[in-house]
Amino acid sequence: MKRLEGKVAIITGGARGMGEAHARLFVEHGAKVLITDVLEKEGADLADSLGDDAIFIKHDVTSEEGWMSVLESAEKYFGHVTILVNNAGIAGAFANAANLEYNEFKKVMAINVDGTFLGMKTVIPSMLKAGVGSIVNISSVSGLQVAPGSPNAAYVGSKFAVTGLTKMVALEYATRGIRVNSVHPGGVITGIAPAAAFDNPKALEPIPMMRFGEPKEVSNLVLFLASDEASYITASEYKVDGGMTAK
């Protein structure tokens, strides 16, 4: 069964890692997908591999003009947008507050928070025209509690902000056919953390399942939230962390 048949999705940060896994699974389940990322070659290659059901646009999520261009392209090629996955994000430099450069702080906040807000602001009118929409904001376990190994205050602050934005926008549009939820991965192998972090056996100690998650294990949840199967779910947060936040 194709669970996203007839749906049109925008996935940011879609060129690799979790974003790539989301895009592949969405196309497999019948969605038309517009992939965005700053990684042009990787994004274009991914879209080519997915065929006519996917296109790629190079996109800086902190640019309001860029968001308008993305929306125009999605509507031109596929129709009104009914799914938005705000997946783009960065961790920033590993540093404590006194050593974290302010420009680095602003960069992390701009991509993780401004990008998420601008995505919702831009795409919601298209969803209202379609009469239905699902927004999935990728936060982190660091957006629920200060998790072991969190890189810096900017990252934690930005992910808490995404959690709050999700709830506020969900309440604003709860009676208008648009659902908004957040997903909180922890210990998942993606490009956002240094590869060395996954080679350190001590990194498994906070995870009760004693293994790292794979991107598709997050994508399976994102698929569910994007689908009509989650029709009564909004303003909620979902952890994919191998039990990390239970400790």
Structure summarized in a few sentences:
It is built from six helices and seven strands, in the order βαβαβαβαβαβαβ. With 247 residues, it is of the alpha/beta class. α3 runs parallel beside α4.
Architecture overview:
The longest helix is centred in the middle third of the chain and has 29 residues. The N and C termini lie far apart (37 Å). This protein is 40% helix and 15% strand. By secondary structure, the chain is an alpha/beta fold. Strands 3-2-1-4-5-6-7 form a 7-stranded parallel beta sheet, with helices on both faces. It has a single domain, classed as NAD(P)-binding Rossmann-like Domain (Rossmann fold, 3-Layer(aba) Sandwich). The chain is globular. Its EC number is 1.1.1.47.
